[in-house]
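Tutorial handout. Part one gives the primary structure; part two gives the three-dimensional structure as tokens.
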Amino acid sequence: MCIFCKIINKEIPSYPIYEDDKVIAILDISQVCKGHTLIIPKQHYPNFLSCEDSTLTHMMKVAKALGNHLLQTTGASGMNVLSNVHEVAGQTIDHCHIHLIPRYSEKDAIQISFHPNKEDHDFASLMNTLAIQSLDIL
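Part two.
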């Protein structure tokens, strides 16, 4: 059983700031920034991409409401909302979760930045490879 399942089952302690029948939101033990919160579905899914649609929709609604609450109560200037999928992307626990990370300044302990890739890109070829006509989402 994963550590998040143990937290959900109250087998190990946590610091919940919100809970309903589908999710629990707890303070991240790392507190990379004050108020760093994890929204975790009570049903086990390995990651964001494997999560059932109605659960994911609920998680995003909670993330929006809780994110606004965190901004108001912490005085943060911004918020990172993210989910890592697989180890190469930074996922360390194989249970879907969304990070809410209040940001106070550009010198916070977390640094997320995008740097242009210096390689030449054939965008037309990439578009043709990645384009999809429809998604089975409805």
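Part three, for discussion. The two ends are 33 Å apart (CA to CA). Helices lie at 3-8, 53-74, 123-130.
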